[in-house]
Amino acid sequence: xxxxxxxxxxxxxxxxxxxxxxxxxxxxxxxxxxxxxxxxxxxxxxxxxxxxxxxxxxxxxxxxxxxxxxxxxxxxxxxxxxxxxxxxxxxxxxxxxxxxxxxxxxxxxxxxxxxxxxxxxxxxxxxxxxxxxxxxxxxxxxxxxxxxxxxxxxxxxxxxxxxxxxxxxxxxxxxxxxxxxxxxxxxxxxxxxxxxxxxxxxxxxxxxxxxxxxxxxxxxxxxxxxxxxxxxxxxxxxxxxxxxxxxxxxxxxxxxxxxxxxxxxxxxxxxxxxxxxxxxxxxxxxxxxxxxxxxxxxxxxxxxxxxxxxxxxxxxxxxxxxxxxxxxxxxxxxxxxxxxxxxxxxxxxxxxxxxxxxxxxxxxxxxxxxxxxxxxxxxxxxxxxxxxxxxxxxxxxxxxxxxxxxxxxxxxxxxxxxxxxxxxxxxxxxxxxxxxxxxxxxxxxxxxxxxxxxxxxxxxxxxxxxxxxxxxxxxxxxxxxxxxxxxxxxxxxxxxxxxxxxxxxxxxxxxxxxxxxxxxxxxxxxxxxxxxxxxxxxxxxxxxxxxxxxxxxxxxxxxxxxxxxxxxxxxx
Length: 572
Description:
Helices cover 55% and strands 10% of the residues. By secondary structure, it is of the alpha/beta class. Helix 10 packs across helix 11 and helix 19 runs antiparallel to helix 20.
């Protein structure tokens, strides 16, 4: 049951019956309904200013006439106030209809089939081979993972892509370093750290031995030419890196459908160059090949260097065409930091100029802000770089210390600490609009009070505790009038609006909308819990209604947490 939808549909019928000239107005008023800033002004409001021009009447007159004929007493009553038509829900009926709908949906409240038959490709995380997974990769990874879950929830076919950074001369240098100073067992044992040590040594030695640079280029040329030894070492480096990354992905509950990175598209760039040439888009610039974008207030898009080597844009153009032809996507999202905004504007514009109109509407750069740690900007050169596996491990350790202090008798403390610690990190990343910069502080993220992951998880566990402790009320019919208080009604409104939050999150590529909706539900339940006794031996029918409300809240909080990639402990 969607009360907002019912009000919108009834209002449309009322409007067209009252005003024959309204036949040309939109057939759906759902999006026009607003949520008043003050609950005393109603649960929903329709601004009649939108009708004034078409109906040639003053908004207060329109509102007054519609209020007089609007008839849906089982759901809401309507009042005209200053040009607004305000709707006040029938509290008992609203409670019953909302809970019936939410509980019948189980863990699918807010799910839909609106994406059925559509495909969305999501490019996120995109780690670099032979480099450690650090906190700078956190935002792209958890934003992308959440969007994948949200689109899945709405019926889309999702294709999650980890576009590996696995191409370039640096990989030739890596092989050269390994051949000079490396050891297979040391790399297997030390993983990415050992490969990083070799790469750093290569760069140090290169400063005094320029011949090493040519050696590195020669090994990369061997990779390009398909030399068996070079490819064997190259693919082994990738496997070692992915093995290291998988530990982090497993902790975060992140999985990918494709790990096709830059190297995968290296042999597909020839088509791009030929097509740009054929369509007259390629120009010479000091020996390099570019697409001139001055007309669109952008610098030129580099396609080939003067030595004929491809660049990021060349491979990204090949990747876009491959994904469209392979997956036939309806949307293709790139979850990449905002500093790459120009890169993607150039990419999309070149695709448009090539005649691919889908690039304009179907491709989207989902940008996000910078990450800092306790007030310090991340910098590899300055040594301020937090490795992601270390961050997650420390979060779990700190969560375990708090749990031991607050709940010494809790079973499975370590597992709960994992859920709480990891959840705190993910929640803190998805709490605010993605474009905002994030400053991660331990004390804030792991606080059990306020708007934090542990607070929301604890509220969900509290709901579960109430339900476990509840006596068997048998077939007692719930008395929904027990939910006509303001606190319960606020909860019911938030429950009814949760599907809108999920839908809006998908449309705006903004997981924080789900985070906020879930957090507001947790805050409202705690207020309800402290203001009203859920269980009352003298009122079994009222207790049954309050228990149904508690169950619905638990289910929806659990769903909301899942959609942002956070687990919900049963006990805390």
